[in-house]
Specification:
single chain; mainly alpha
């Protein structure tokens, strides 16, 4: 029994040429599609890095703002210790004790930048981003603890006679705050080394009302209580 294959209309050679053209056309289409995807991926990575840089620039500005008031923090803690040791009723305070305002940190972009966009960032800068966000999260926890401890101190009526227990607890709080402050130089050194290679500079675009509020608070926080 013989099976006869149908012959192409224009011969096998022409048929092979037509198939080759089709294959080449498919490969070209696939290559073009891949090229479009690559362009889209590069654009998405660029947009992601731009957003990350802006968020880190905000966090860097917030951290540097805290560093700028560090001399005032130490001076205020020294002054509070003197007030706690004084005889009650002597030298009334010039103004009420207030805590220093600090800018909230932001993590929304990093938390949202999951999946392909973040995975396509080159390894070295991706690790630098991850490590920077880690240290900022550590600083945020320090900042929250510091804020809680300032709240404990500002709840005291320093113009009145405090109980022995209140004085003791206030001094413990001050010691805890000093221990937290000892971590700031290590954070500052690491952040400076990590932001440099990424080219991140602190964000200076603070709106006027917020800037005025921060400056007013800083002036009062840095002025003596007595």
């Amino acid at each position: 029994m013989h099976v006869h294959l149908p012959k192409p209309l224009h011969g096998w050679r022409a048929f092979a040429g037509e198939v080759g053209i089709i294959v080449i056309g498919v490969l070209i289409a696939l290559g073009a599609e891949q090229g479009v995807e690559d362009i889209h991926s590069r654009a998405e990575v660029k947009e992601t890095r731009t957003a990350l840089d802006a968020e880190l620039a905000h966090n860097l500005a917030a951290f540097q703002g805290r560093l700028r008031i560090e001399p005032c923090v130490q001076a205020r803690l020294d002054e509070l210790e003197r007030i706690l040791d004084r005889e009650p009723g002597r030298v009334p305070l010039r103004h009420a004790l207030e805590s220093a305002l600090t800018i909230n940190l932001e993590f929304a972009v990093w938390d949202a930048a999951t999946g392909e966009a973040r995975s396509l960032i080159p390894l070295k800068p991706k690790l630098q981003y991850a490590q920077l966000y880690d240290v900022f999260r550590h600083y945020e926890r320090l900042r929250d603890r510091e804020s809680d401890q300032w709240a404990q101190l500002t709840d005291l009526d320093l113009n009145a006679q405090l109980s022995t227990q209140e004085v003791k607890q206030a001094k413990v709080t001050i010691k805890r705050m000093r221990r937290l402050d000892q971590l700031l130089p290590a954070y500052a050194s690491y952040i400076e080394r990590s932001t440099g290679p990424l080219g991140i500079q602190p964000d200076t675009n603070v709106d006027a009302p917020a800037r005025a509020l921060m400056e007013s608070n800083r002036a009062k926080f840095c002025s003596p209580l007595m």
